[in-house]
Design goal:
Elements: H1 14-21, H2 24-35, E1 40-41, H3 55-67, E2 71-76, E3 79-84, H4 86-93, H5 96-110
Antiparallel strand pairs: 1-3, 2-3
Helix pairs in contact: 1-3, 2-3
Length: 111
């Protein structure tokens, strides 16, 4: 099986982070991972939107988040266990990621 790509912190770009978080579903996935106390498997997110997501769509969302450098995924058997890289990103991106997520939360309350 091909290894998963996780960019080094110095290769993570603002453009990549903004693209990854530009989709509301990916932003919700990231928020849920950030609030989790342990790693989460992809199937935990099947009902993250109003209509259930196909596994292939969900896998694509996780790939975009991973390749943007926002999450780290580890294979355990047939499942991928995911967690955020917030502590690694804090030095480079400061509060930017938290501010983006706060805006999603704020706009959701007013919708």
């Amino acid at each position: 099986m091909r290894p998963l790509y996780h960019p080094p912190v110095e290769e993570i770009t603002v453009q990549g982070v903004l693209y990854a978080l530009s989709d509301p579903v990916r932003a919700r996935i990231f928020m849920q991972l950030a609030n989790a106390e342990c790693t989460q498997i992809c199937s935990s997110f099947l009902n993250i939107s109003e209509t259930p997501l196909p596994k292939s769509t969900l896998s694509q969302h996780f790939k975009i988040l991973r390749e943007a450098g926002l999450i780290r995924s580890e294979r355990k058997g047939v499942e991928l266990h995911n967690r955020t890289r917030c502590s690694e990103l804090k030095k480079t991106f400061g509060p930017m990621i938290n501010e983006i997520l706060a805006m999603y939360k704020k706009s959701k309350k007013h919708a």
